[in-house]
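Long-time lurker, first post. I've been practising inverse folding by hand and with some scripts of my own, and I keep getting stuck on stretches where the structure tokens seem ambiguous. Below is the full token string for one chain I'm working on. Before anyone asks, I'm not after the true native sequence, just a reasonable design that respects the backbone. If someone could post their per-position residues I'd love to compare against what I wrote down in my notebook.
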């Protein structure tokens, strides 16, 4: 039986938008906690000859930030700040009577120094390091929509095509090859049919399905949550389905409670355009074991506590201790104990995969698909990268009947044949769109939808005018950044709603101002728009060839497979 581990890497655009807590420090934390440790683990497995064919998604907006010179400078400053915190900690700990924590400071100093050396060894280029691992056959890199836009709720098909065209082109530019697979932002899917998400939305009639757009763009496969295949309940936030249990799940709306196996790739069969497009289904058993904050591994008492840190400096010195333990009562972290526990959890996970494989042994095309946010490993669950490496070592040692493979390898050996019709849904709370379109966020769509209309109305003439093209290019970038699903998600969770609302409004305002400059009128506003576009291009510096994608999106569905 095949095993496909898929990691989805994404952060919104934060460079040149401040540092702490939601500016460049957010990106630097992800690099320090997750991306560099993951590269370290994968290189270690490579050196040991251990197969670890991860399918790794990197969103274009994240990849653009990781290759930025601004990021390299911010990362160097971030390392320096953390090392200064280590230097200052001994005196501070002595003054507060916490000298017993000093060995943990040394643990952090060694770790920071090691990862800083790795960062310098790869030339500060995380994208190049991942590209080299793919070139060595160690993983498969896939893409996503340009800025992680919530595709089913975009009002114009051109907007969906633009998100996907940029996603494909940027992956090719940065990673050197066209991606076979795509990660749908928030695993959000909508089939062909009437589109009218809320009262006041633009009247669009019958819309093409997301699967049709994926097929038009040249993708071979994508991933869905288990409930969309009627193979389990929604994943939800942190493994909690959440919401009102009386609310119908998408799987219940799709022809009753018919159960389908999550252990096979399906051919999406909504239309001829989607022939050959495979949907791989999240396995609810193995995924929940890792993802759930209630019953998963990351909540173990021995693991590093994410929420408690020492200020100034941000060093984390305590362990989870227990699910109901107050932050003030957390006990000191023991790295050796945590590493031992991670090894035990890896053995347990590999055994769970073996149990699943035993139940599916009659299917030659069976596959276990375990998809996660990459940032879970290392950032939220500090021991996650170490656990991941241990899983692959255990599989190689004790479970040779399980074959870890990339997604493309599995589909090459076992093409998707079983047809399936998928309902609308996502991997968010309730399995629907409510995390992104609800009472707290409907205003964002009421702002976005007219902006989409204005952009696509202006695009044809602006593309034909050399003086207007730079303005249109930056308007496209600002529109794409405003479409990021992160803003609605953050608003819905309430974690930093003011920040998300401000960033969303900022990008909308900038796009609107640039489009106004393209509109003409009694006073020529194009020169002012050109000046503003130049300034914004320095701040939001990404997607250098976005106008080619705009032209593709305008050209219609069949043009997107152009290489």
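-- Answer (accepted) --
I ran through it position by position. Result:
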């Amino acid at each position: 039986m095949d095993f496909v581990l898929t990691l989805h890497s994404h952060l919104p655009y934060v460079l040149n938008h401040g540092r702490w807590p939601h500016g460049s420090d957010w990106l630097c934390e992800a690099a320090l906690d997750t991306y560099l440790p993951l590269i370290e683990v994968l290189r270690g497995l490579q050196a040991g000859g251990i197969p670890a064919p991860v399918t790794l998604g990197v969103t274009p907006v994240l990849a653009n930030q990781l290759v930025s010179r601004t990021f390299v400078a911010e990362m160097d400053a971030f390392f320096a700040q953390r090392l200064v915190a280590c230097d200052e900690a001994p005196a501070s700990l002595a003054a507060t009577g916490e000298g017993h924590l000093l060995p943990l400071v040394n643990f952090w100093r060694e770790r920071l120094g090691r990862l800083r050396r790795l960062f310098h060894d790869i030339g500060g280029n995380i994208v190049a390091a991942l590209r080299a691992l793919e070139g060595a056959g160690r993983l498969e890199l896939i893409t996503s929509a340009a800025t992680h836009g919530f595709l089913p709720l975009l009002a114009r098909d051109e907007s969906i095509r633009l998100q996907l065209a940029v996603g494909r082109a940027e992956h090719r530019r940065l990673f050197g090859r066209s991606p076979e697979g795509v990660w749908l932002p928030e695993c959000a899917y909508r089939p062909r049919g009437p589109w009218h998400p809320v009262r006041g939305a633009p009247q669009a009639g019958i819309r093409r399905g997301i699967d049709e757009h994926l097929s038009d763009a040249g993708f071979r496969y994508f991933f869905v949550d288990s409930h969309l295949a009627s193979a389990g309940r929604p994943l939800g936030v942190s493994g909690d389905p959440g919401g009102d249990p009386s609310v119908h799940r998408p799987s219940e709306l799709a022809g009753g409670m018919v159960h389908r196996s999550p252990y096979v790739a399906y051919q999406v069969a909504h239309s001829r355009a989607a022939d050959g497009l495979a949907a791989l289904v999240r396995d609810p058993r193995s995924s929940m074991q890792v993802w759930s904050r209630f019953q998963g591994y990351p909540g173990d008492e021995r693991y590093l506590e994410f929420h408690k840190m020492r200020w100034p400096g941000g060093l984390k010195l305590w362990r989870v201790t227990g699910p109901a333990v107050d932050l003030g009562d957390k006990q000191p972290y023991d790295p050796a104990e945590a590493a031992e526990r991670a090894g035990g959890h890896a053995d347990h996970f590999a055994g769970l995969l073996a149990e699943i494989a035993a139940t599916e042994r009659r299917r030659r095309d069976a596959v276990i698909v375990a998809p996660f946010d990459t940032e879970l490993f290392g950032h939220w669950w500090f021991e996650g990268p170490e656990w991941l490496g241990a899983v692959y070592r255990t599989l190689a040692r004790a479970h040779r009947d399980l074959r870890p493979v990339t997604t493309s390898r599995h589909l090459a050996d076992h093409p998707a044949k079983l047809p399936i019709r998928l309902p609308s849904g996502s991997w968010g709370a309730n399995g629907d769109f409510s995390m992104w379109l609800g009472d707290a966020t409907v205003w964002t769509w009421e702002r976005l939808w007219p902006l989409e209309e204005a952009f696509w109305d202006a695009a044809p003439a602006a593309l034909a005018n050399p003086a207007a093209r730079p303005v249109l290019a930056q308007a496209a970038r600002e529109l794409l950044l405003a479409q990021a699903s992160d803003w609605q998600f953050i608003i819905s969770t309430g974690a930093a709603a003011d920040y998300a609302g401000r960033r969303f409004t900022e990008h909308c305002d900038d796009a609107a101002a640039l489009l106004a400059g393209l509109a003409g009128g009694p006073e020529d506003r194009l020169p002012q728009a050109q000046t503003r576009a130049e300034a914004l291009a320095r701040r939001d510096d990404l997607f250098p060839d976005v106008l080619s994608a705009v032209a593709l999106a305008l050209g219609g569905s069949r043009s997107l497979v152009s290489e």
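A couple of notes from the structure itself: The CA atoms of residues 146 and 167 lie 5 Å apart. The domain at 2-192+209-242+264-431 is CATH 3.20.110.10 (7-stranded beta/alpha barrel). Happy to go over any region you disagree with.
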